[in-house]
Amino acid sequence: MTELLEYILDHEEAFQNQYRLSSLYADFGQQHELNPDGYKSNVSAWIKALSDATRAGIVPTQGATHDLLNIRASDELAQALTHIQYGKPTCLPAVFHDAVQNKEMMPLNEFLQSKESIYSRSWLPSPWKVLQWSLRQVGVLGKPSGLPQKLGAGNFVLIKNIELAADEILKKMKEHVSTADRVLSRAEFMKRFANILNTTAPLTATDLNIMLVHLARDKQAITYSTQTIKFKPEHEAVPEPITQEDEAIANLRDTLANINAQIQPLHEKITLADAAAREAVASKQMVRAKAALRSKKLAETALAQRTDVALQLETIFAQLQQASDQVGIVEAMRAGAVALKSLNEKVGGAEGVQGVVDAVNEQMATTEEITNIINEIDQPLDEAEIDNEFEALEKAEKEKEEEEEAAKTATRLAELGEVEKKRTEMERAEKARQANEEKKEEADVDEASESLANLSFVQPDSDEQMKDAEDERRVPIPA
């Protein structure tokens, strides 16, 4: 199983169902007429799988290169997608044909050479084309010509992938507000954005050309030349043309990058030469030690020169950056001055404003004078009458409060009388209860005394009487 097929089977949900997988590998061209929804679903699954796999950097384009924005339709692609059970995907010609018709893919040469944006109305399917397709599905119009049966070799730009990359690039460029930071060379552009889609698979030279065309023609976000790329400020509608200053900034970036790239190897060369010299001295190889020291000295001299040059270039670049920013500041100030002048002219200048203020003050004074005149016509108020009426109101309010207080006092007294009445009744009831209990106790005592009086105790008169009584109790026992 190839890496491409393994990736699709592992990452694409549509390819993880065995029943669906057999349908995807079958020749579903007939479904274009018999089952349009199933046909469209299968084509969409294949387009998504191919776009994702290309973006992952596992679809070979030519040789060992892996473009991320461009896919090559060829027999090699079909071979890489061959399944051990279902064989080659015979549907690939229909997939590429439908993707081009629906503007999800575009032939590479046509994309690079077209002067018209992919977002223009003529490039997108028109409402009439959509209506024609609907009428064909219901049988009102005749069917279009049959789908291709053979996969023709060719490179196709994946629209979804270039849109994702463009959005990420423009998002990152928002972090750079300086004018100089928006001017890049091609090398600097690739250094910044090579891994914008995939951290392990960088953009290729073909991808760079595709991306520059898309950003300039379709997004209108950059202008570019052979070596210089210039992003437009966010507040501008279209990018400005590249100037000589922009070319100088881009060239300075490349030169500074080249100088900095030479510094690290020189450090390593100095370290190796120093180690070799020490080793040669330790082994008594004086000729070799001197040669290593000479090499170290030359590397140190070169490093010092490169470091000085890099410092000078960085200083120049900082000055260029400051100067370019100052240009923007001065232009903003100039535009602000023009706007202020226009606004001042609209208000008539300082003299016009002063005249307006004087007129307003004059009218305000007139209004105040009229108000004073009207106030003089009004009858003065009788303050004594107002005081008498206020006293009457105050007296009535006080009487009302006294009546309310008297009513509250009477209510409280009535409540207290009722409470006292209830308390007296309860005391009487308690006394009556106690009297009844005392009478009952006396009756019980009398009854007990009477019972005791009725009891009698008989004492025998003599011992004879006691003996007779004892004899009577004896019973004779037979012999």
From TrEMBL:
Its domain of life reads: Eukaryota
Q: Where in the sequence does UniProt note compositional bias of the Basic and acidic residues kind?
A: 418-442, 464-479
Ranges where the record places region Disordered: 395-479
Chain segments annotated as coiled-coil in the UniProt record: none
Which N-terminal stretch is annotated as signal sequence? none
Write out the GO cellular component annotations: cytoplasmic side of plasma membrane; ESCRT III complex; multivesicular body
List the InterPro entries hit by this protein, alphabetically.
Snf7_fam
- Offer one example of a GO biological process linked to this entry: late endosome to vacuole transport via multivesicular body sorting pathway
Q: What is a single Pfam family found in this protein's UniProt entry?
A: Snf7
* Gene3D superfamilies associated with the record: ESAT-6-like
PANTHER family registered for this protein in UniProt? CHARGED MULTIVESICULAR BODY PROTEIN, SORTING PROTEIN SNF7 FAMILY PROTEIN, PUTATIVE (AFU_ORTHOLOGUE AFUA_2G16692)-RELATED
What is the name of the protein in this document? Answer: Snf7-domain-containing protein
Starting at the broadest rank, the lineage of the source organism is: Eukaryota, Fungi, Dikarya, Ascomycota, Pezizomycotina
